[in-house]
Design a protein that fits this description.
alpha+beta, Histidine-containing Protein, Chain: A, 3 helices
């Protein structure tokens, strides 16, 4: 009889542990989805800021990627000033934690 009670208690404990583990996974998935939406929003705001502050032509030549609030700028700029202004515009956007600048200058031919 004690053995049956022990087995029942062990099974209940395992079921409870499994339920807690799966609810933690769901919370993690929701955080990931929320972070993805936040990153997409930041990306859109950075693109708009670059177009507004630097110019539409410059914004068309710069790609923006955001991961966990870290913005990466890549592409080409006509001048160092234009690249610097794009970085400054990105840094002003709410939610941006840091900016990685991979913008290259167009070669003057």
């Amino acid at each position: 009889m004690k053995r049956l009670a022990s087995l029942t208690l062990a099974a209940a404990f395992c079921a409870l542990a499994a339920a807690c583990a799966s609810s933690g996974d769901q919370a993690q998935q929701q955080d990931t989805a929320g972070m993805y939406i936040d990153d997409a929003t930041i990306t859109a705001k950075v693109k708009t800021a670059i177009a507004t502050d630097v110019g539409v032509k410059a914004a068309a030549n710069v790609s923006v990627d955001t991961s966990r609030g870290v913005v990466q700028l890549a592409g080409f700029a006509d001048s160092q000033d234009q690249a610097d202004r794009a970085v400054q515009a990105a840094k002003k956007v709410s939610g941006v934690r840091s900016v990685r600048n991979d913008i290259r200058l167009k070669s003057s031919s």
